[in-house]
Amino acid sequence: MATKKGAPCNFSEGDFVLWSRVDARLPGNKLMVRWVGPFRITDEMVQHVSNQGLLLNVERFCDARYNDELSRWELEVSWQGLEDAENSYEGLEELFNDVPAKVAAYVAENSSDGLRAALAAPQE
User: Fold this and answer.
1) What is the pLDDT of residue 12?
2) For residues 75 and 90, is the Cβ–Cβ distance under 8 A?
3) Residue 103 CB coordination number (10 Å)
4) pTM, two decimal places
5) Which residue pairs, CB below 8 angstroms and at least 24 apart, start in 9-14?
C-alpha cells in the first residue's frame, strides 16, 4: 500500500482503489505493470492481523484465563487507542516483563489464587 519512499495509505468506505501488479505472462523479457480495478472499499477490516511494527501500550486488563494448550496463564489486554474487538490474550510472563506494575496491580485486585501463585513463581 505504500511505495518504498511513499507513505502508508488509509482508505475509507466508499473509496475506489486500484491494485498494481507486474504481469509476467507477457511475451519477451519486459515486465509490464498493469492496474486492476477500480475496487470499491465496502467495509473496514477490524479483525485483520498483521505485523506492522506498532508499539502498543496496555490500557487495562479485562480478564484472566489458564490456557491448557500452552500450559500458562494469560491476561486479556485492552490496548490503548484500539477498539475492544482488538483485545488479545497475552502470556502472563511476557506481560510481567513488559509492564510489571500494571500486572502486579491487576493480580492483587482481581485474580484467583492460581494466578497469584503463577505470578509469584517467575519472581522467585
Assistant:
1) 80
2) yes
3) 22
4) 0.57
5) 11/41, 12/41, 13/41, 13/42, 13/43, 13/44, 14/40, 14/41
Specify the fold of 58-123.
OB fold (Dihydrolipoamide Acetyltransferase, E2P) (2.40.50)
Beta strands 16-23 and 32-40 are antiparallel
Domain ranges of the chain: 11-42, 58-123
Please state, in angstroms and as integers, the Cα–Cα distance from residue 102 to each residue in 36, 54, 107, 115, following that order: 48, 20, 9, 14
Task: Give 38-88 pLDDT, tens digit per residue.
Answer: 888 887 766 555 556 677 899 999 999 999 999 999 999 999 988 898 899
Q: Residue 1, SS3?
A: coil
Query: Predicted confidence band at 1 (pLDDT cuts at 50, 70, 90)?
Result: very low
